């Protein structure tokens, strides 16, 4: 099972690596659901960790509908991220009627390198009018390796039934993205959630963070290690 951890700093990334994470999602502004981090931070993290680093490409937290100026800014960010060693991208875009914006997505994936890119379609999918249809449509884009979802709910445990359905679609339709569950997952809720949904990839943020001596929230390698141990104990399905 794969474990992805949200990182907001180099220290977070190193703590995630120490705890046994497979991958990090590097972001800024966690309180807005994650925005594009400074490229200088991405460069430092990529140079210091051996983990798979997926960098958020999201210019603002207002919506997932983007006009031309925003798409050009995202394209510029992608071009900068591409200079990293083995870059990965986290992105997503919707039309005003909340369907996958295939034109905008194709443009961004072309900047990312198309088939050679490693892309996660983020929780924009949770705002789609038809989440299952949106998931199936993403299968047409080989660069999209996984979809991060809470099953359309505020937190993944509440969306478990739909996440299970997406996992069934993933198993039945070769070439569709891997389903990665995220939002509201904790060490305590994970065992039952994994059994109920059958997901093979999970994404944790606040569930593996603790306050340091100065009251700042940081990734706690001990919590990451507990999740890693839990995942390693789960039976393969």
From TrEMBL:
Its main location: cytoplasm. It comes from the Bacteria. The keyword GTP-binding does not apply. Keywords: Cytoplasm. GO terms for cellular component: cytoplasm. It is found in: Cytoplasm. The keyword Thylakoid does not apply. InterPro entries: CutC-like, CutC-like_dom_sf. Pfam families: CutC. GO terms for molecular function: copper ion binding. HAMAP family: CutC (MF_00795). Belongs to the CutC family. This is PF03932 family protein CutC. It comes from Cohnella xylanilytica. The lineage of its organism: Bacteria, Bacillati, Bacillota, Bacilli, Bacillales.
